Amino acid sequence: MSHVTVHLLRHGEVFNPDGVLYGRLPEFHLSERGRAMAVMVAEHFSALKNDGAAPVYLVASPLTRAQETAQPTAEALGLEIVTDPRIIEAENHFEGMKVNKSELRKPKHWPYFVNPLRPSWGEAYEAQAERMLEAARDARRRAFEIGGDGAQAIMVSHQLPIWSARRSAEGKRLWHDPRNRECTLASLTSLTFNGNDIVDVNYSEPAAVLLPGAATTPGA
């Protein structure tokens, strides 16, 4: 059977001075730090390639921050960015709002807290995992067609869809405490496929040196 690795790359830091939950809103660009993160990731993949790895296929969410994160890697590896809407950010009722205790106490939001295990305020975790893993399997297939056994694909996506996909791949329950997600800015969640089956999951942070002081916004 063929072994292919699909790296799920979270985008870099976003310029978000108002601290809103930007979700699927357009035109949220990377910050200066976020652009530096994207360059560090590109350097990471260039080093892997120089060591004999074969990153041959690059996919990104249609959102601006994902496309901008993918661009340095595309340039470094000479790859086209393929846009895949299946790996977009999760839907969220609170999109565009500042999510704080004062906002959450408003009665108009209460119906969205009926089932936090789904969650009822946004796209179901299961739906996110399904679309992400479907896209990952398609990326695996395309990478194998291009690079053969040992090829690698890169998918630039968003924290919650990546985390949902990882927990599903590891056979864990999908509902969780958002504070415990292991999916920092510009991190890699790497899925190793043997044929169409995921046989290993690894996590790394190529831009870890830039994480201290980076902005964090409540996720979906």
Roughly how much helix do the residues carry, as a percent range?
25-40%
Number of helices: 5
How many structurally independent domains?
A: 1
Mean pLDDT: 94
SSE string, helices as H and strands as E: EHEHEHHEHEE
Q: What's the CATH class, please?
A: Alpha Beta
- Side by side, the strands of the main sheet go 3-2-4-1-5-6
* Percent of sequence in beta strands: 15-25%
Computed CA radius of gyration, to the nearest angstrom: 17 Å
The count of DSSP E runs of length 2 or more, i.e. the number of strands, is: 6
Shape: globular
Structural class: alpha/beta
Stated plainly, the CATH topology is called Rossmann fold
Cα end-to-end separation: 37 Å
Poorly predicted residue ranges: none
Protein name: Fructose-2,6-bisphosphatase
Organism: Arthrobacter psychrolactophilus
InterPro entries: His_Pase_superF_clade-1, His_PPase_superfam, PGM_Phosphatase
GO molecular function: phosphatase activity
Concise overview:
The chain has 220 residues and is an alpha/beta fold. The chain has helices at 32-50, 64-77, 101-104, 125-147, 159-169, and strands at residues 3-10, 54-60, 81-83, 151-157, 188-194, 197-204.
Could you characterize the architecture of this molecule?
The chain is α/β, with parallel strands linked by helices and 220 residues long. It has a single domain (6-203), classed as Phosphoglycerate mutase-like (Rossmann fold, 3-Layer(aba) Sandwich), CATH 3.40.50.1240. It has helices at 32-50, 64-77, 101-104, 125-147, 159-169, and strands spanning 3-10, 54-60, 81-83, 151-157, 188-194, 197-204. The chain has a six-stranded mixed beta sheet with strand order 3-2-4-1-5-6, with helices on both faces. Strand 2, helix 2 and strand 3 form a beta-alpha-beta unit. It is globular, with a radius of gyration of 17 Å. It comes from Arthrobacter psychrolactophilus.
